[in-house]
Write a structure and sequence with these properties.
Elements lengths: L28 H7 L9 H18 L6 E6 L1 H13 L5 E5 L2 H13 L5 E5 L16 E5 L1 E2 L4 E2 L14 E4 L16 E5 L10 E6 L1 H9 L13 E2 L2 E2 L14 H17 L2 H20 L4 E3 L11 E6 L2 H4 L3 H17 L16 E4 L6 H22 L6
Parallel strand pairs: 2-3, 2-4, 4-7, 7-8
Antiparallel strand pairs: 1-9, 5-6, 8-9, 10-11, 12-13, 13-14
Helix pairs in contact: 1-6, 2-6, 7-10, 9-10
The chain binds pyridoxal-5'-phosphate.
The site of pyridoxal-5'-phosphate (PLP) has 13 residues, from α3.
Length: 394
């Protein structure tokens, strides 16, 4: 094998993690600090106005229908999705579609925490979508639009009939701002600021359809709901959560930062523009992958390939011939080489996924940085192969 020559140019920004994701191009903490109401009560007029702006800008850039309500809730996307499940589920049978770590986490809660008796778990291996046609007519559904840990996404929501009685609960955290989410087909949609927006973690967004609000009003789950999950008071929706109030204290620095991202997205031209940026980034990466003989997209069907959390597998026989543990050692060494050069941080696949790489291609990634990363991937592969190749005793 030829000696691996180190590339000359490094990405100007090495953050390719799939969450928290890279800040937006041009992000400046000083600017965020100037607009943040630090040290002020979150119930003050100015701070409430900023929360209101986050909600209205979110609606505007994501084109969320006017009759859907949007709330800022605690505990990032996990908090928002758990809140949706614990409030809404239990009235009807539940179908859970899961194809990677996070979908399986939600399945675990439906089955083992909420103990729903009439459930169906329709799952599949990393890299493939399960059979979505198995959706029952009168069930609530839980699924993850873009499986961040496998790089598999649903291509659309055409598999969900419009006139269903059941609710559709969708974890869309790594999809929004990167993929066109079909709001009308969904009833409870969640995401966080730390993915496509390049915002901060710890706060989640919960979007509810009129049908979901109706369920909230008419159905009371059997289980207790902690204050942090409660959306009703005396049987009435707490409207403030969906206007300019929060259940508990948010970070006003994070709120100002979210607004900064949303402003950037608005100036770009809204979600259509961030989706276009993610598509272009994905195309750059996939085109390069297609030209290599050692690496492939983990997902065979191109319509199911994520354009945000792109998962790649190494197919070189010197890699595939290694034991699972040694494949992970190979990946660890590969990513160490890149981190050590400050070229790419955090691009190892998720620990529950097959050993591989995962590269965020969302809108906050600049196309040039991604392009500059590519030769380094080849370099790291050759260096890792020199270390772990067939002549090495493992
Ligand atoms: C699909 C999906 N669901 C849930 C989560 C958990 O989100 P958070 O850490 O924002 O609570 C993540 C985080 O990566 C994710 O990608």
């Amino acid at each position: 094998m030829q000696a691996s020559k180190k590339p000359q140019v490094k990405p100007s920004q090495p953050n390719f993690s799939s969450g928290p994701c890279a800040k937006r191009p041009g992000w400046d903490l000083t600017r965020v600090k100037q607009s943040a109401h630090l040290g002020r009560s979150h119930r003050a007029k100015d701070t409430k106005y900023q929360i209101k702006q986050v909600i209205s800008m979110t609606r505007h850039v994501l084109e969320i229908p006017d009759n859907y309500i949007i709330g800022l809730v605690p505990a990032s996307n996990t908090g928002a999705f758990e809140m949706a499940m614990w409030n809404l589920i239990g009235h009807l049978p539940v179908d859970i579609f899961a194809w990677e770590n996070f979908g399986l986490e939600w399945a675990h809660d439906v089955i083992n925490q909420l103990k729903i008796k009439d459930y169906r778990l329709i799952s599949s291996d990393y890299g493939v979508l399960p059979d979505l046609s198995l959706l029952r007519e009168n069930s609530d559904v839980c699924f993850t639009w873009n499986g961040t840990t496998s790089g598999v996404r649903v291509p659309d929501a055409n598999w969900i009939p419009s006139d269903r009685e059941g609710l559709v609960l969708c974890d869309a955290t790594s999809a929004v701002f990167g993929q066109k989410v079909d709001w009308i087909k969904l009833d409870a949609i969640t995401f966080s600021w730390q993915k496509g927006m390049g915002g901060e973690a710890a706060h989640g967004m919960l979007v509810l359809s009129p049908k979901a609000v109706e369920r909230l009003r008419r159905y009371t789950p059997d289980w207790p709901l902690p204050k942090i999950f409660r959306l009703l008071k005396n049987g009435n929706l707490i409207e403030g959560i969906f206007s300019d109030e929060t259940i508990n204290t948010p970070s006003m620095l994070c709120v100002a930062d979210a607004l900064d991202s949303l402003q950037w997205i608005k100036e770009l031209g809204g979600a259509d523009s961030t989706i276009a940026r993610a598509n272009a980034n994905f195309d750059t990466l996939q085109l390069w992958v297609d030209q290599q003989d050692w690496i492939q997209n983990l997902v065979e069907i191109s319509a199911h390939r994520s354009n945000t959390s792109v998962c790649l597998k190494i197919i070189d026989p010197d890699f595939t011939g290694l034991s699972l543990n040694n494949q992970w050692d190979f990946i660890k060494y590969f990513v160490f080489l890149l981190e050590n050069e400050d070229v790419a941080y955090d691009i190892a696949g998720h620990r529950k996924a097959p050993p591989g790489l995962r590269i965020w291609c969302g809108a906050t990634i600049e196309a040039n940085d991604l392009r500059d990363l590519l030769p380094w991937l080849s370099w790291a592969f050759k260096r890792s192969k020199e270390k772990f190749g067939p002549f090495q005793k493992l």
